[in-house]
Every structure is written in structure tokens, then in C-alpha cells.
């Protein structure tokens, strides 16, 4: 039982830590500042606290999924969403391509929906932990889409 709690810490620290490292290596920067933003663009200071809370919830859900005996589908979906999540910042801020980032985040949204649907049957707590994440990614997808649309000719 003690090792399970250690794994919880490992999951939360790993997810949050990797997210923080990616965020530090791919910050908004001058390119982003020159883009036209939609009216619903929140201040940059909102993103770090929101992602910190979400990464803790994602880590807890991952830990719960990996503690289950036979849930390879949920494990695969959890891993795929982490990969897409971590890919978005390098594509958007690193490559400075809002269009390709929109493809990445749309894929992330689809995987989150699939994860929640499967987890709803198999591990409902993890499904609930992903609900705020899906809400935020839905908002972020709309934001990414609006930025892409407003800046296509730029």
C-alpha cells in the first residue's frame, strides 16, 4: 500500500514537472505578442495556475488508471493525451504555427472525450478528474482556433 502512495507522488510530480519544463522552454514570447487575439483571450498569468491544478488532476487520474489490473485501453488513452498535451506548446510557441497546433489540440480533445467515455464505465473517479481538463481544452481549442483565424493572412 505504501508503494501505491509513492507512485501517486511520482505521477503527479512527473506530469506537473514535465508540463512546467515544457512551459518554461516554450513561453509565449514576442511572436505571440504580435498576434491578434480574440476578445476572450485571458491574461497570460491565468495559464500557469490553471495548468498546475489540471496537471495534478491528470497525474492523479493516471495513477488511478495504472493501479488498475486490466485497463490497457485507458492506459493507452492516458498516454496519448499526455503526448498530445506536451506537444501543443512546442508546435504553437516553438514552431509558431497556430494551424498545426489547432490540429494537435483537436486531437487532444477527441482523445479526452474517448478517455472520459471509457473511464466512465471502468474508473469513474478518473472520468470526473478529466472533466475540468476537457472544459479547459475546449476553451483552449476555441482560443487556438480564433487566434489561427484572426492571423491567417499575417
UniProtKB/TrEMBL annotation:
Spans traversing the lipid bilayer: 5-26, 46-66, 73-93, 99-120, 127-150
Stored InterPro entries: TspO/MBR-related_sf (IPR038330), TspO_MBR (IPR004307)
Q: Does the keyword Cell membrane apply?
A: no
Q: What kind of membrane protein is this, topologically?
A: Multi-pass membrane protein
Q: Which domain of life is it from?
A: Bacteria
User: Which terms in the GO cellular component ontology are assigned?
Assistant: membrane
Question: Which UniProt keywords are listed?
Answer: Membrane, Transmembrane, Transmembrane helix
Does the keyword section mention Ribonucleoprotein? Answer: no
Q: Which GO terms describe its biological process?
A: tetrapyrrole metabolic process
From the Swiss-Prot or TrEMBL record, state where the protein is found: Membrane
Indicate the principal place this protein occupies in or around the cell: membrane
Family stated for the protein in its record? Belongs to the TspO/BZRP family.
The name of this protein is Tryptophan-rich sensory protein
